[in-house]
Design a protein that fits this description.
It contains 18 helices and 30 strands. The protein is an alpha/beta fold. Among the domains are: 166 residues, no CATH class; 205 residues, Glycoside hydrolase family 3 C-terminal domain (Rossmann fold, 3-Layer(aba) Sandwich), CATH 3.40.50.1700; 130 residues, Sandwich (Immunoglobulin-like). The strands form 7 sheets. It has a 6-stranded mixed beta sheet with strand order 1-2-3-4-6-9. A 6-stranded mixed beta sheet has the order 10-17-16-15-11-12, sandwiched between helices. Strands 21-29-28-23-24 form a 5-stranded mixed beta sheet, with no helix packed on it. The structure holds beta-D-glucopyranose. Beta-D-glucopyranose binds next to loops. The site of beta-D-glucopyranose has 7 residues, from loops.
Length: 737
């Protein structure tokens, strides 16, 4: 405020808060030397890039992302700085957020994280991640929002908008096609334009156009022969061209590869390059970055047009005015009760009840747990008693606290005992460090204890170790690690009352699925992990999460794994995406493969009845019909037909009955989460437009809906369709991308 009061008529425009940002950018630019402009484009430490000290323009502080604000890293190395003031609230992984299918929750998440970032004086949070879930082996799927472009697009926007209201930029990453960690630097993804536009780009486009995201991070991989961080097609033609992105493109850390391309093809800020200069004995290490000394010389010699640096510097200044020099931004806060509540709420809404059957002759399902407070609960599994916020690569967090499942279950049920059952070993980045414990004894101990329990809660799944859910490596198979299959089978053989809870960001194979009554998908839930899990197990909260990706029964049921090794994992040179647009449920449905758990699946402790859908259009005729510019209104009454309050995600898919090109059987086009009291009915209404009917016509570089009949599928998951209807599109409709 003081700053505003001392302004005078002579105050330069770039310092005037109420001047529009473009005038401030132009004014600042006009006062800067070439060297100062170029200095903006490369790091000055691991997570900081410079401003213009002479003009009082501050630097930019970047921080991971995307589930909380990462702990402080040293100036020049990846070592943690060991501060005592940088612990934070850990929010659930983005997979969990996507599983909530609730955009309002996404806004709460983005705002709370934005507040924590402000308090920690960060200008940009390196998230959200919206790479599409292509294979269950990808080590970083937990940081992303699932397999469906529409779901990811809808969920990513409120996160960005709410975060940015705090004067903190979001960073949609990793643009694009970074769908695996194995060979992530170097793999050359060969992808068709159709798959690019229909599957892999929509969430980024939504982040830019609907979310107004301030920054985008390029990916490590190559796309059709060109590096992601300076890929002309993706960055210049599509992002900054077709979508009109006015923000900053930053490299993934160490993702720049070449000065010519970095200068010319859309990169603005280079971070994390390994040419740190120290080894050359120069004073300033970062001058050896691709966009530093060599770029500056190239500009001076006329090799690179001055327009490139004018554009880069303008974008970076715009980001600074939107964030660090935005005096209207709030102070922020961290580790507040409100943030804990947001973390718990996201977790509660994202937990997915995959299976819930009665045991033996009982008529009621095993969950919610029926026994009283004093029942004998046996908790089994390393994941019940292990931190999931502190490893996994760049998303790892220094949570101020993390309530484990064991802690929360023990609090709810004082007669809880624990058996480790299996040991995941220590989490060491980029290394598998085997357990030193005896697996047979751990298993035998758990099975012996299970005989005397009223209920066994097994908490297993994956963890954040190398080749599990962790950066820089993929899983080696879809199987559960650490011999958990055997443990689960032996537990259920001695005690049928087994609840299996999985922490993971990925689908796992479940050979024992038919013998276990209850299965809960619990993602990585952050600080409030155990509390949210207990809320769901006890029925204090009725689960309402739905899977954001397909659980195939086996790996080869997944599109990317249905071809040769070139298709996955590829090699350091070449990886054709042969499944093309048929990712996730699109593949399973086209090939008539029954998934173990379908996209959009998730049970509740209540039941929902779907009434008859009404399909209305403004066209005439027996079958509802529309043409370009018109809409179809689809309404469906949904009733809570059970005994407890609950939330249902009503999902609307559309399929083209006949097309000149191959199309998926159906695709998600709309959804709505609704809360209903027992007996309550609400009519859900969706408006379908010709945009919802289009495919990407690559030959003509346009979106196209062909005239004909379309089927609407409304249901509780992609495989649980409760109602169908048809309507006609009477003319072809096209749209520019
Ligand atoms: C990751 C990014 C992360 C960056 C900075 C990279 O290794 O791929 O997601 O934001 O490091 O930590």
């Amino acid at each position: 405020m003081l700053f505003v009061l001392i302004m005078t008529a002579q105050t330069p425009i770039y310092l005037q808060q109420d001047a529009d940002i473009e005038s401030r950018v132009a004014d600042a630019l006009s006062r800067m030397t070439l060297d100062e402009k170029v200095r903006l484009c490369t790091a000055q430490s691991k997570f900081c890039s410079p401003g213009v000290p002479r003009l009082g323009i501050p630097e930019i502080w970047w921080a991971d992302g995307p589930h909380g604000v990462r702990a402080e890293v040293s100036w020049d190395s990846w070592a943690y700085a060991d501060w005592t003031s940088d612990s934070i609230t850990a929010f659930p992984a983005l997979t969990c957020l996507a599983a909530s299918w609730n955009p309002e929750i996404s806004a709460l998440y983005g705002n709370a994280l934005g507040e924590e970032a402000r308090y920690r004086k960060k200008d940009v949070i390196l998230g959200p991640g919206v790479n599409i879930y292509r294979t269950p082996l990808n080590g970083r799927n937990f940081e992303y929002m699932g397999e469906d472009p529409l779901l990811a697009s809808i969920m990513v926007v409120p996160y960005i908008q709410a975060m940015q209201k705090n004067g903190v930029g979001a960073c949609a990453k990793h643009y694009a096609l970074n769908n695996q960690e194995l060979y992530r630097v170097g793999v050359d993804v060969q992808v068709s334009d159709r798959a690019l536009y229909e599957i892999y780009l929509p969430a980024f486009k939504a982040a830019v156009i609907d979310g107004g995201v301030y920054t985008i991070m390029g990916s490590y991989n190559k796309i059709n022969g060109k590096w992601g961080c300076h890929n002309k097609r993706l960055l210049v033609d599509i992002l900054k061209g077709e979508w009109g992105f006015d923000g900053v493109v930053v490299t993934d850390w160490g993702g720049a590869q070449d000065t010519d391309e970095a200068a010319l093809y859309g990169l603005d800020v280079e971070m994390g390059s390994y040419t740190n200069g120290k080894t050359t004995g120069e004073d300033f290490a970062y001058d050896y970055y691709y966009l530093a000394r060599d770029y500056r010389q190239g500009l001076k010699s006329g090799k690179y047009p001055m327009s490139t640096i004018e554009d880069k510097a303008s974008r970076i200044l715009r980001l600074i005015f939107r964030t660090s020099m935005n005096l209207d931004k709030p102070w922020g806060s961290k580790n507040t009760t409100e943030h804990s509540e947001v973390a718990r709420l996201v977790a509660q809404e994202g937990i997915v009840l995959l299976q819930n059957n009665p045991v033996g002759k009982s008529k009621t399902a095993l969950l919610p747990l029926q026994g009283d407070k004093n029942m004998r609960v046996l908790v089994v599994g390393d994941n019940a008693n292990r931190s999931h916020t502190s490893a996994g690569g760049s998303s790892e967090l220094k949570a101020q606290y993390e309530i484990t499942p064991l802690a929360a279950i023990s609090e709810a049920y004082p007669n809880t005992t624990y058996a480790m059952g299996y040991d995941g070993g220590p989490a060491v980045y980029n290394q598998v460090v085997p357990s030193t414990m005896n697996g047979d004894s751990l298993r035998a101990d758990a099975v012996a204890k299970a005989k005397n329990a009223d209920v066994v809660i097994f908490v297993g799944g994956l963890n954040k170790n190398h080749q599990q859910d962790c950066e820089d490596g993929d899983r080696l198979s879809m199987d559960l690690p650490y011999n958990q299959d055997q443990l689960i089978s032996e537990l259920v053989a001695v005690n049928p009352n087994v609840v299996v809870v999985f922490h993971s960001g990925n689908a796992v194979a479940m050979p024992w699925v038919n013998s276990v009554p209850a299965i809960v998908q619990s993602w990585y839930l952050g600080s409030e992990s155990g509390n949210a899990l207990v809320d769901v197990l006890t029925g204090a909260v009725n689960p309402s999460g739905k899977l954001p990706f397909t659980f195939p029964a086996k790996l080869t049921d997944n599109g990317a794994h249905s071809f040769d090794a070139a298709c996955y994992p590829g090699d350091n040179m070449y990886e054709p995406y042969r499944e093309d647009i048929l990712v996730g449920y699109r593949w399973a449905e086209s090939k008539k493969i029954k998934p173990l758990f379908a996209f959009g699946h998730g049970l509740s402790y209540t039941t929902f009845n779907y009434g008859k859908a009404s399909i209305k259009s403004n066209g005439n005729g027996k079958t509802p019909q529309i043409k370009g510019g018109e809409t179809v209104t689809i309404s469906i009454p949904v009733t809570n037909s059970g005994n407890v309050k609950g939330k249902e995600v009503v999902q609307l898919y559309i399929g083209d009955n006949k097309s000149s090109v191959m199309r998926p059987v159906k695709e998600l086009k709309h959804f709505q989460k609704v809360e209903l009291m027992p007996g309550q009915t609400e009519t859900i209404t969706f408006t379908v437009t010709p945009d919802d009917l289009m495919f990407f016509d690559a030959d003509n570089h346009q979106w196209k809906a062909e005239a004909g009949t379309f089927t609407v599928y409304i249901g509780s998951s992609s495989s649980d369709i409760r109602n169908k209807g048809v309507f006609n599109l009477t003319e072809e409709v096209t749209r520019k991308p």
